[in-house]
Amino acid sequence: MVLVMAGGAFAAPTVDVQATVQSMCGSPVNGAFTALSIDPSATGDQAFAVTTPATIKCTNNRTTVSITAASLYGTTNGTPATCNGTLLTGFTMQGATAAEQIDYSFKCDTSIVGAGFGAGGAKSLGIGASILEADAQSADYNGGGIYHDTVTLTVNY
Amino acid sequence: MMYNLRRGLLSFHVAGWSFKNMRKTCFHTFLSALFFVTIAAGMAERVFAAPRPAISSASPLPAGALFMAYSFTFTATSGIPPYQAWTVTAGALPPGLTLNAGTGVLSGTPASTGMYSFSITVDDSATPIPKTSAAIAFSLTINPPSCAFTGGSSSGIISFSNIDPSSTGTIYGTVTQQVSFTCNVTPMAYTITVNPASGWMLQSGANDIPYTPGIAPSGAYAGAAVNLLIPPGVGATLISQPDYQNAPAGAYASSSAINMTVAWTLGGAGSIVATIPIGNVAGTVINTCAVAQSPGTLTFTMDPSVAGTTNATISPDMLIKCTKGDSVVISASSKCGGGAPRLDSAYPACGGSQIPYTFNFVSSATGLGFGTSIPLNIGGSTTSSNYQDAPVGTYGDLQTLTITY
Questions:
Q1: Is A20 in Cβ contact with B355 (below 8 Å)?
Q2: Domain extent listing, chain B
Q3: Burial B176-189 (b: 16+ CB within 10 A, else e)
């Protein structure tokens, strides 16, 4: 701030007006996959289709430090896997009982660059999931039950 | 002239004298004698026409003062110098003075006052008999010790041209008309008293500023003129900060006279009185403003993930002080936005990403004098819509305040 004394003595104390736009991430949107019918006889990996991409908003131009993923029933529970854009192991779906489990692989992007919190600011975390051929072949049949898992993504910024 | 041929006798008149029936022989003798007498008379005339000395000094003599050393040298002309035997032939010299017969110097220390008359003569150095001048009458006045104002002025003027209420400390008045006095005796002790010892400058009879006149102290006259009014500096006429800092703007003038009495007792008590008349201590209080407290940094912290309004904080606030009663208008301009303030990521340049904000402050006020501050209540605010997509980082701006008073 500059002070001008009109018509008399002049004094000029200055004061900066300062602002800090904080580095923040938020406004997460949960992702979802279409339920997959596993065919143990099929060859090759069987991928889940993404019905809702997981997104998050971060301060414009802010690059996140890392993204990790933790499976509720898998070995990554407690020891989250660091996303790197490729399929990661250690994820497990569970059926009606704890004995009914099918391992699968999960992927998410290494990091994102924030686009702000406005309408166009949501950034996809690049989630994907697949059941590897070997896991599908060894999956138990438990009366056609439903298996599910919850993956928690943590965005560090 | 008649000549009797029959008797050979002459009758004639010379210079009013009648000469009758003079024989020719006697007539010739008479002419010879007349010639001799005429020649002798011419010589005598030259002898008796040699001038007497004359005193050339004029009366009255320069006045003297009681107890003050006095000296005057009489002078003479004509006759045959050197002159001698200066003598008082009538009257009396002032007590304490003597006339040096050899030099004609009248000197000494007068011991009493009054006007004295006397006559003096002087002899020259003619030989064998010196000639004496005519007696000349003189008068000499011996004055009592006294002091008088120089230039005949006993009226002083003190001016406080521009009283700036934002000043700190004492303000001294300028002597625009001095009052000085001299005395006819040195050394001569004098006392100076001031009455009253302080006065008031009033503005339209409502507001007042007390002042203290700065008058020279008592002392001893030493030959140089003594100034009664002390010039700006220690001891000068002054006004104190607490008395002027809250004074409204305008003209002020003293409401009463200040008398300054110079008194002495040598040779008898005497005194003279000088005055600073009503209105002769005057000044003008000016309108002005000053920063009493510089403001801190106006700081925004913006969380783009939170919708709503963000208010800036500042500590401390900016404080100003202005002449009491002065109408003050404050305006502001943003370096990066002019009248529409902008925070800029390139600050101190203004070419980066910008965030609009509102700069708040008190836009008008009335001066409270320099004993009381006026807070400007500086603040700022912005809404999340202005920064939710702003790049992470720091932003800045510079506000320029113009205070018109």
A1: no
A2: 2-48, 54-144, 148-285, 289-404
A3: eebbbbebbbeebe
Contact partners, residue A33, CB within 8 Å, separation at least 6: A48, A49, A50, A51, A129
- Chosen from B389, B394, B401, B402 to mutate, greatest number of chain A CBs within 10 A: B389
Report CA B61 to chain centroid distance, whole Å: 31
Q: How far is B209 from chain A (nearest CA, A)?
A: 22
A61/B380 Cβ within 8 A: no
Best CA proximity match to B357, nearest among B329, B330, B297, B397: B397
- Domain B54-144 class in CATH: mainly beta
Cβ atoms of residues B146 and B116 within 8 Å: no
Inter-chain contact A8–B289, Cβ cutoff 8 Å? Answer: yes
Q: Contacts of residue B301 in chain A, CB cutoff 8 Å?
A: 19-20, 22
pTM score: 0.69
Which of B286, B287, B380 lies at the smallest CB-CB distance from A17?
Answer: B380
Using CA atoms in the order B332, B336, B337, B338, what is the torsion angle rounded to 10 degrees? 40
ipTM summary value: 0.82
Q: Which two tokens stand for residue B268?
A: 């008898």
The CATH topology of domain B148-285 is Immunoglobulin-like (2.60.40)
Cα separation, A72 vs A95, in Å, equals 13
pLDDT in tens, B2-52: 445 445 554 544 444 444 554 554 444 444 444 344 434 444 444 445 689
